[in-house]
Amino acid sequence: MSHQPLSHQVNPRDVLALDALLNQDEVLLRDTVRRFVGDRILPEVADWYERGTFPKEMALEFGRLGLLGMHLEGYGCAGTSATAYGLACLELEAGDSGARSFVSVQGSLAMFPIWAFGSEDQKQRWLPAMATGEAIGCFGLTEPDSGSDPSSMRTFAKQQPGGDWILNGTKMWITNGSVADVAVVWAGTDDGVRGFVVPTDTPGFSAPEIHRKVSLRASITSELVMDNVRLPADAVLPGARGMKGPLSCLNEARFGILFGACGAARACYEAALDYAGERVQFDRPISAFQLTQRKLVEMMVAVQRGTLVAMHLGRMKDAGTLATPHVSFGKMDNVAMAREVAGTARSVLGANGITLEYPVMRHMNNLESVYTYEGTNEIHTLILGQAITGQAAFS
């Protein structure tokens, strides 16, 4: 037993010294993405947010960093560990949820189904270009009347006597939709739900952009409209039948989100910590007041705890022991944590917290979307409820 005196020195940005849990390669990747976010995203993201856009050319920059499909093997993908992918998502979302969403949708929702379920021709055609950012992908599952219950989708593909497919339907809330080169669209067929690889220049396909958002503004969000879109017989993903295909893609994306939410929360906590040390009231910085210190401590503990959960789940995924309820645990709790931290940080910054001079209100608004997309908080609660009781509370 050690009897060395305890040190009173801690890093206020990493009180539990979580960096010690990372290996050298993970630290290098994390620091590389953090520098990129600081140099390329943070100086401009407030303007992107205010204008309601995300520059398409960022895809090439993400590609040069090896971030697109980074957790996949082959076809120009980096083949990193799941934990490394999660750390990249964490740093990207510390910049903005829109940046993490772009990388997450490209890699986990568009590239992953082609990689996991596609034919060799589909993989060779799309994955190398998507890994470099030369081709952008999107994922079409959610519909105007079908969100938490995707199995009730109305989009339908009918196979013709010659083998071609005719695809009709509408998808909603599609990240990257109007800038995508290819869409992975899930549709009902006479043989159950199937996935289709749809080049966006196919006649009958359109992707009108959704405007007037107050959340995820530094992100392109669209509808997908398929009006008698004719596809060749080999447009279908041969390895995916039923809802297991799209749901496995959602689990990939949720894994990135449970890391990413910690990045948004950390950015809010650090903004509040810095502000409280600089803002002077009653002749002293507000960080000297007990109520402010309580807020800062509660935020710090929440961020560190959420990051520990993310790291543990990352190690489980790398070990092959991660299950769907584990992903729901992380997505549900870490996003709820980040949402609360953002609100507390906003209160520390006072009126300054509502401006784009600080990142807090931007993260706060973004997290409202993150809280409900890729499975609402309620759905993840019920997934966990079924896991611990054995009783399904929903179909």
Automatic annotation (TrEMBL):
It is an enzyme of class 1 (oxidoreductase). Its cofactor is FAD. One of its GO terms (biological process) is fatty-acyl-CoA biosynthetic process. Its EC number is 1.3.8.6. It comes from the Bacteria. It catalyses: glutaryl-CoA + oxidized [electron-transfer flavoprotein] + 2 H(+) = (2E)-butenoyl-CoA + reduced [electron-transfer flavoprotein] + CO2. Residues 138-229 form the Acyl-CoA oxidase/dehydrogenase middle domain. Residues 24-134 form the Acyl-CoA dehydrogenase/oxidase N-terminal domain. Residues 241-388 form the Acyl-CoA dehydrogenase/oxidase C-terminal domain. Keywords: FAD, Flavoprotein, Oxidoreductase, Transit peptide. GO terms for molecular function: fatty-acyl-CoA binding; flavin adenine dinucleotide binding; glutaryl-CoA dehydrogenase activity. Gene3D superfamilies: Acyl-CoA dehydrogenase/oxidase, N-terminal domain (1.10.540.10), Butyryl-CoA Dehydrogenase, subunit A, domain 2 (2.40.110.10), Butyryl-CoA Dehydrogenase, subunit A, domain 3 (1.20.140.10). InterPro entries: Acyl-CoA_DH_CS, Acyl-CoA_Oxase/DH_mid-dom, Acyl-CoA_Oxase/DH_mid-dom_sf, AcylCo_DH-like_C, AcylCo_DH/oxidase_C, AcylCoA_DH/ox_N, AcylCoA_DH/ox_N_sf, AcylCoA_DH/oxidase_NM_dom_sf. Pathway: Amino-acid metabolism; lysine degradation; Amino-acid metabolism; tryptophan metabolism. Belongs to the acyl-CoA dehydrogenase family. This is glutaryl-CoA dehydrogenase (ETF). It comes from Candidatus Neomicrothrix parvicella RN1. The lineage of its organism: Bacteria, Bacillati, Actinomycetota, Acidimicrobiia, Acidimicrobiales.
